[in-house]
Fold this protein.
Amino acid sequence: MDNKKFFLLDGAMGTMLQAAGLPGGSRPELWNLTNADVVTSIQRQYVEAGSNLIYANTFGANGLNLAASGYSVAEVVAAGVAAAKKACEGTDTKVALDIGPLGQLLEPLGTLPYEKAYDLFREMLVAGEAAGADVVIFETMSDLREVKAGVLAAKDNTKLPIMVTMTFEKSARTFVGVTVPAMAQTLDSLGVAAMGFNCSLGPKDLMPLISELAKHTDKPIILKPNAGLPDSEGKYTIDAEAFAQEVMQAVDLGVHIFGGCCGTAPAYIAALKAALADKTPVEKPARETNAVCSASIVLDVEEDFELGTSINPENDDVIEAIEDEDLDALSDVAMEDTDEDAELIQVFLPEENEEQMLPRAVEHIQMLVHEPLLLRAHSINALEKAIRVYNGRPAVYVTNDEERALCEKYGAYPYEA
């Protein structure tokens, strides 16, 4: 996307559908099939207000949510993209396949396996591209591992440009603890086209997060805030003109992709368009950092750092923990490294166990240890599985071209001792 031009997204869909008669507790995406004209009418209002990209009504159209609906993912997604494309007829406005959280926490915090999440996203993505979506946007995301599963599914199975917006709290973290620098480093390494924030907060509360994000990425930044917070009656507190003026603070921070989330409407997009008319986009300088991260901590590997190497095939405690499949004991070894001020923790298991245990070990250690990890393996298959499930951007110990190729594919940092 062109950093030299402003780009307008749409506003809320859910509250607009509710105003049009969507019953509480029902799946909004099913209206793509039962009330498609209403969906198209709402989206056409956004097109006429100035949106350059509108979101298909596909936010929750995944296999988990639709399991008891009587409709397939392909049917609902195709109908959603078709409704949006109809709203864009006669204009240059494009359509995004909109994908939200799956609704279940991934293992080990929850019960949803990582590869199952990947498959659920893949199903939506393949259907969306086949239906003619121009781009995919993952929005309202809180879990960086879930985002990673979706982005990898998009890269592996489609040619769609990928945009991501996550939802943060005033603490500058998501509800599962993701930080802004970690989000930026991970999404940059995965090669997304644009990233930013949506939902949860109003424009003023998102400005510190925008400022922080601009320090860590030169990718286009997206700002899609709520219209403030709802009052006691559930009404959002910022009107269209005030919303637009508050959002304009982000122009000087380098944001050039704008839209609205909960509580906004076509009037808000029209107000944004008018407010941007006399503004000039601020170009951000190119930025390249050699860093790795967990979901919360970023480590610049060009600076001096302490490497913890206790998890290795010669450590008796590691051998015993792996033979007993005692991942708590293995995590204790990692925490001993952090107690010694290690900033990057190596995970290197006995060769005979790593195919089965390395991905599980990475998932479990990351649940308890916040520091980034250095992944090392004898088996290229075990290494790939571990990189896929890793939460953030890992360092990978490389000794050959196959391992370097894995780093290139997954955006991992190639560590050469």
User: Anything to note?
Assistant: The chain has two domains: 7-276, 291-415. The chain has a mean pLDDT of 95. Residues 114-131 form the longest helix (18 residues).
